[in-house]
Amino acid sequence: MTDHRRPAGAMTAPAGPFLFRDRPGRGLEVAFTSVDAGNLAFHVSGTPAADIEDSQRDASTAGGDGGAEDSRERVRASRRGVEVSLGVPPGRTEYLTQVHSARVVSAAGRGWGESPVAEEADALVSPTGRDPLAIMVADCVPVVFASRRSVEYPAAGGRDGRPDASGRGAGGVDPLSGPTAVAHAGRRGLLDGILQNTVEKMRREGSGHEPGDIQAWIGPAICGRCYEVPEQMRRDGTAQIPATHSRTVWGTPALDLPAGAQAVLESLGVTVHRSPVCTREDPRVFSHRRDPGRGRFIGFVWRREEGWGTQQIEGSEG
């Protein structure tokens, strides 16, 4: 991960299933998985596109939907593996059924293991900042958020019901103690306002309104050199977010979604950290355009509570 104010350089992958992993505040972790974590989405097969026809034929020959169930079990195992690596209780992470909308919902406090049918939305906010949140992508822009709590809001309650010290002005206390969030910013969602809606909801839930009170990590996504679109689509996108205007390396119209996401967030006073990794160019992450149907990786945020997990960060590039 590289701060947008520094020149983009090579990203060094930590050991294990993460392309990027960091701890920006006390107990707070943000991460983006790599292909080594496996496919983390139930709605894709996890099978290379070239092999899909053969795997479907094998499943039908076997008599039943065993292939589909095998694929779902692989996803379950992959999700549990990521949680173990992060020190999250298995099944505790909250996912969404992503539909390329601008809808934002609050965390329900129930992970995928307890509530396997996820709500339809494209951003998820944890008012307490303690819920493990995940967002799935394979070219679209994944954004992970953390925040300082507004001085106008009381500190969130602790696990025992007593208030925690948090927010600015509490000596020696992590400032990123406010709401957290994740968002899926595909072309449609980005243009329809998914990031603005996420920031607005975070502030309603207690995030500060001052510049820098909210921080965002823009993860690996297809870059403006690779995201080819029809000319009319580029004109429409550029009219709404000028920073998205781009051209592919082969000279055709394109949109730069990560640049557009950065421009939107900075206009809202959000501090942005942006990955230089392009999903289409880098085989360490899944890409729908490069390899349709192969899988999804996730952007992840959670706050480690006392007694939950002891694993240390294996490495990061920050």
UniProtKB/TrEMBL annotation:
InterPro entries: Cu_polyphenol_OxRdtase, Cu_polyphenol_OxRdtase_sf, Cytotoxic_necrot_fac-like_cat. Coiled coil: none annotated. Pfam families: Cu-oxidase_4. Residues 48-86, 154-182 are annotated as: Disordered. The keyword Chloroplast does not apply. It comes from the Bacteria. The keyword rRNA-binding does not apply. Keywords: Copper, Hydrolase, Metal-binding, Transferase, Zinc. It catalyses: inosine + phosphate = alpha-D-ribose 1-phosphate + hypoxanthine; S-methyl-5'-thioadenosine + phosphate = 5-(methylsulfanyl)-alpha-D-ribose 1-phosphate + adenine; adenosine + H2O + H(+) = inosine + NH4(+); adenosine + phosphate = alpha-D-ribose 1-phosphate + adenine. Residues 69-82 have a biased composition (Basic and acidic residues). Purine nucleoside enzyme that catalyzes the phosphorolysis of adenosine and inosine nucleosides, yielding D-ribose 1-phosphate and the respective free bases, adenine and hypoxanthine. Also catalyzes the phosphorolysis of S-methyl-5'-thioadenosine into adenine and S-methyl-5-thio-alpha-D-ribose 1-phosphate. Also has adenosine deaminase activity. Belongs to the purine nucleoside phosphorylase YfiH/LACC1 family. This is Polyphenol oxidase family protein. It comes from Citricoccus alkalitolerans. The lineage of its organism: Bacteria, Bacillati, Actinomycetota, Actinomycetes, Micrococcales.
